[in-house]
Specification:
The chain is of the alpha/beta class and 587 residues long. Among the domains are: 55 residues, no CATH class; 234 residues, no CATH class. Helices cover 35% and strands 18% of the residues. A 10-stranded mixed sheet has the order 5-4-3-6-7-9-8-10-11-12, sandwiched between helices. Strand 20 and strand 21 form a beta hairpin. Helix 5 packs parallel to helix 6, helix 7 runs parallel beside helix 10 and helix 13 runs antiparallel to helix 19. It is elongated, with a radius of gyration of 30 Å.
Length: 587
């Protein structure tokens, strides 16, 4: 049976039928339920008591579960919740107060009442009213099944967690043993925005990103991360523990930002779970655990949730953030600043119009339209999925490059490339419907990630999305530089020799070992500009023997028809040598 769109067990239904008829007023009912299950206020208004009595008197139909994606809802099963509580008990955690900031159907509350014998007070917050009732009914069912358990004070609060003042609770737990436990929403602010959801935190740049970063990818953040940091703000100076099921990216970001935030958290753990098994979703997630009100720590121990075997440790080593502290020590000498600036490829957010293929001499787009345009603004295009080979000379796709630098006026296209302009203008609504604010107030058909660097003839590129640790040499096509899309990163060169030297260094096993120690395989983008800029090509060059370089050059010359030797090696070194160096080693 469902009442208030919430499930009731047969035990709870039977209890209500036997006891509610004697409760004339809401005060009578609340007093009775406080005695039985500790609720401070089971009914908030008289109409709820009346409706419950009416529904119990008739056969209620089951109600379809509403779409909960707006709330990032992945409900925790009772087995997992109990396992989390058991792991906490192994760490000698036995709280008097349990706080669940997004309690959902109450799985963690029930697990806490079941596993922690000293619980005296439970506080749950939930925005979705049917889950409020489901939690209340589940707690009542627990106490009816366990009549000899000590009854805790139960507060289940109907509130949006983003507007909730956790400082009020932090004052209540002062000098008391408490635990914050739960499973915050696994969804980002941009995903909620695309759903036109009202379940969003107040619009703030809470990570203090710069203007462009705040408008693009770095301005996006996980809702659970926002909630976690809000909890730190409220509770970091009180002696308790926090245990939350969150995406791995949230844990990484918390530890990454810990260097600047200096939250009073320590004993940080990441307990990796099987999200497919537990929630039937392909998202990497873990139990994030830490102790509050302690000396700030900057590293996290990673465990297998089910076996409790520790796998690695990640976090800060001095001023360097690494994904594996032990492995990093072997290649840390290559961690510096790349002499060449890594760039991201072209961003246009209009692939249906801007990405082309050439079939029988005609261009086609993703709308299956066939057309002819001038070749002047058409360049070969590589996407992440194309960067599989070591050398690429021919592309399967093309793109229209409307600007040579960000913000350039595009009116020239109409006069110099009339067919291209006619094609672009035909699809003007597609450009105008781009949601990103970076295009606001910009010239027609604007793109981003474009500059002098885009037109370098020789590039060394890598996919930001794949875990290949493989770099690709990109050569010109039809005497024009090849472009990459915004899922790729590259460095560009005017001389092919420099590009070949760079790719030899970047595909060196030492480079791969170094990158494995500073990248996170479960990240949405394994490689970013920040990561790639840490590769010190100068130090790698100084570590490479002449014999190794000659062997690699011979291999590439034979396989790809190149004719490269080491004549320009010293010039390449000079391009990279740090200004502070007085001497350089040449051979």
């Amino acid at each position: 049976m469902k009442i208030f769109e919430a499930n009731l067990s047969l035990l709870v239904i039977d209890f209500f039928k036997k006891n509610l008829n004697d409760c004339i007023t809401i005060a009578n009912a609340n007093e009775m339920l406080c005695d039985v299950a500790g609720f401070m206020s089971f009914f908030s208004k008289e109409s709820e008591l009346i409706e419950l009595k009416e529904k119990l008197s008739i056969a209620s139909l089951r109600i379809e579960e509403p779409d909960r994606i707006e709330y990032g809802d992945f409900q925790t099963n009772s087995e997992l919740a109990n396992k989390v509580a058991s792991i906490l008990i192994e760490r000698k955690i036995n709280p008097e107060i349990v706080i669940e900031p997004t309690c959902g159907k109450g799985s963690f509350i029930i697990a806490s009442l079941n596993k922690f014998p000293n619980v005296k007070h439970v506080i749950g917050i939930e925005i979705y009213k049917p889950y409020i009732w489901e939690t209340k009914f589940a707690i009542l069912d627990f106490y009816l099944q366990n009549p000899n358990r000590n009854i805790a004070i139960i507060e289940i609060i109907h509130s949006n967690v983003f507007n909730f003042d956790f400082n009020k609770i932090s004052r209540q737990v002062k000098n008391k043993n408490f635990l914050i436990i739960g499973n915050p929403p696994w969804i980002t602010n941009s995903q909620l925005g695309s759903l036109n959801s009202n379940n969003l935190p107040k619009k703030t740049n809470f990570k203090n990103q710069n203007g462009l970063d705040a408008m693009t990818g770095k301005g996006n953040f996980d809702i659970a991360e926002y909630i976690t940091l809000s909890l730190f703000d409220a509770f970091q100076n009180e002696s308790g523990f926090l245990a939350l099921l969150v995406k791995n990216s949230v844990i990484k970001n918390v530890v990454l930002n810990q260097k600047s935030k200096q939250y009073r958290i320590g004993f940080i753990e990441k307990q990796c779970i099987d999200s497919k098994k537990e929630f039937n979703v392909s998202v990497k997630a873990s139990l994030f655990f830490c102790k509050l009100n302690t000396k700030p720590e900057f590293q996290c121990n990673e465990f297998n949730f089910y076996t409790q075997i520790e796998s690695l440790r990640f976090g800060w080593l001095g001023d360097k953030f690494v994904s594996n502290t032990e492995n990093y020590l072997h290649t840390q000498s290559f961690d510096g600043i790349c002499a060449f600036e890594w760039r991201q490829g072209i961003k246009h957010d209009c692939s249906a119009v801007m990405e082309l293929e050439k079939v029988n001499g005609h261009y086609t787009n993703n709308l299956n339209e066939k057309f002819d345009i001038e070749a002047g603004l058409v360049y070969g295009l590589l996407k992440s999925s194309d960067l599989k080979n070591s050398v690429i000379k021919i592309t399967r796709k093309f793109t229209i490059v409307t600007q040579t630098k960000v913000g350039q006026e595009t009116a020239y296209i109409k006069h110099q490339f009339p067919e291209t302009y006619k094609y672009l203008n035909k699809h003007l609504p597609a450009f105008q419907s781009r949601k990103s604010s970076i295009y606001k107030g910009k010239p027609l058909f604007s793109i981003f990630g474009i500059g002098d660097y885009s037109f370098k003839p020789y590039k060394v590129a890598i996919s930001g999305l794949y875990k290949t640790f493989h770099f690709t040499l990109v050569l010109p096509q039809n005497d024009k530089p090849v472009m990459l899309d915004d899922t790729c990163y590259f460095i560009g060169f005017e001389k092919i020799e420099y590009a070949v030297f760079a790719i030899i260094l970047l595909n060196n096993p030492l480079t791969k070992e170094f990158l494995r120690s500073i990248t996170f395989s479960d990240a949405k983008r394994v490689f970013t500009k920040d990561v790639l800029m840490r590769i010190d090509l100068y130090k790698l060059a100084m570590n490479s023997s002449k014999q190794y370089l000659e062997e690699q050059l011979e291999f590439m010359n034979d396989k790809y028809g190149l004719m490269i030797d080491l004549k320009l090696w010293n010039s390449f070194i000079k391009e990279m040598i740090p200004k502070k160096e007085v001497q350089m080693s040449l051979f």
